[in-house]
Write the structure tokens for this entry.
Amino acid sequence: MSGFAVGPGGDDGAPLPDFSPELRFVFAAARLASGGVASAQLDRAAAQVGDWDIAQRGLVHHGLIGLAVPALLRAGVMPVATCAALEAARRAHVVGAMQRLHELVRIARALEAAGIRYVFIKGIALSIQLYGDPIARGGRDIDVLVERERTRDAEAILRDLGYVPPINAASVRPDEDTPPKESGWVHGESRILVELHDRLCENPALLPWDFEALWAERETVTIAGMAVPAMARRRLPIYLAVHGIRHGWQRLMWLADLAVLLDSDAAWEETLATAAKEGLEGMMLHVGWALHHWLARPVPTPVLARGARRIDVRLLNRLVVQFHDGPQWYEARPRSSLRRFIAGSVWSRSITYAMKPTRHFWGRQLAWDLSSPQDRAAFALPGGLGWMYPLIRPFGWAIRRLRA
């Protein structure tokens, strides 16, 4: 593989869909964070912004406060009021990161004292791995993967540390064969959210990396003087792509992270070889398209050419746009809203199937989609009647929406 293609020319550096001027400015900020925008392009994007409040909220929503705002403030392209609002948001971001850092260390010490193996994923650990700075990336929670056999012990530790499940958390039966991949825990005072994972994906067939493999290859990062385990760097591109694409790149920070990791021919070759073994080559070729067209990052020409020839890549390219087109792209969709239902049940689900177009994965995913874990927890049918869960799913969905 040789030769890099840089973002094509144009008023904004690379072709983007018909996004709003405010969203185009956020994309320019994301390009600034990853080194893919010239000052003239940033000036043009800023000149087209009509509502700076929306642009400011978009920067926060996309997790760019730590990565892009310092450079934006130095560039002097924003109104004084917007600069002041972003300065305040950055101070809050720093305070929040320091609070999460303190809690992360408390949790790590408690897990180690109990002899529970764990790996921190995303968040502060990833910020240190990629940027050498615990506050560079935006973050709202702490994600920790633990060995499945000790999940209940880890939950007990979180309770002892002052965490309780969110009020809207689905109940899980202790004997459930396939419980949700994570449980959320909120601290009673700080309101920090900790997500306790026992696997990386709801459907293990999407990314079948078990805990033992991740533990064997773990790296360590130093946080507040303590060495804690994190995911091996060579595994990060595929894992971050799975996470970011399934959510339609709703936080451009995730794409900026991949720009740091996929910065050479060697990185692309290793990642694509691993992705091909997992049936995820098309997904990673889509990442090349997104880095090239959305962040104007240099991508090896053969990567772009291979992606252009594949239907699954072109489908992913179209599907992710749905999360950025339309009103309120700069905020989380309200729980139980129609927009959130369409995003999660239509676009995100379509993306999931397009990410790994293999018969084995589609079979497992279809079985998962037709049998909700919430229904299994709420309606304890005898083992011989498990085939009825797809039939009761519409009723379970309606009951949960009415309760909400």
User: Anything to note?
Assistant: Residues 7-13, 170-177 have pLDDT under 50 and may be disordered. The longest helix spans residues 80-113. Strands lie at 4-5, 118-121, 141-146, 163-164, 182-187, 193-197, 219-223, 226-230, 299-300. The longest strand covers residues 141-146.
